[in-house]
Amino acid sequence: MSGAQSSRKRVLDELTKFASLARFEEFAIKRRHDYDLVVGGIHEDDKFYETRMLYFMEWLIFDAIGDDVRTVFRIYTDERAEGRSTEETETLDALEKQWRDVFTVKWSADGQMKVTALRNNENIIITDEEKSPSFRKGDLFSGRAFKIGEEWFLTNGICPHPSKALKTIKKDIKRIVKYGGGEMTEYLLRLTGMSVKWERFRNVEVSDIYKPMEE
User: Fold this and answer.
1) How far is residue 15's CA from residue 21's CA, in Å, rounded to a whole number?
2) Between vectors from CA 155 to CA 154 and to CA 158, what angle results, nearest 5°?
3) pLDDT, tens digit, for every residue of 93-127?
């Protein structure tokens, strides 16, 4: 594992530990309620339970807003501004500029995968020795990509989508970008709910779950 990969894992683990502190318990309970209203809840018998919990945790860290109008990530960076190593600072700076997007896989081999970021309309090569073997050409997922130096990485949380939903998702994202991109966070949360339904109701047509945004 490269130095950047090691730093990435260490910082993400520290952020998760920080968000799990007792001081954030009430905040997490309230935001989990908000999250479940959109997504539909996460159950221990879900096929992708651990993956979905990681995805929720990262939503809680990076997207959910607290009473002081800060995310857990912002609180962490504010409180730990002093005494950070160069590697930690680089990783936190990269996470602050993360791409939260839907990605389609072009190829995956030898710990790397080439993906197209649909919102940013750009191909990037992601280094991830743990996740790469699980992906195949044509796979579709929501996630967070960030760049350290010349290398791209993924955070821990990903959300799988059926490849048959690609056309609808691309059209929706194109519309969001056209109008400034302000709806992207809400849209990705909505996609998470669709993914949960797709997992639980495989007898339902993908087009009946992944419905396009209303104009």
Assistant:
1) 10
2) 85
3) 999 999 999 999 999 998 999 999 999 889 999 99
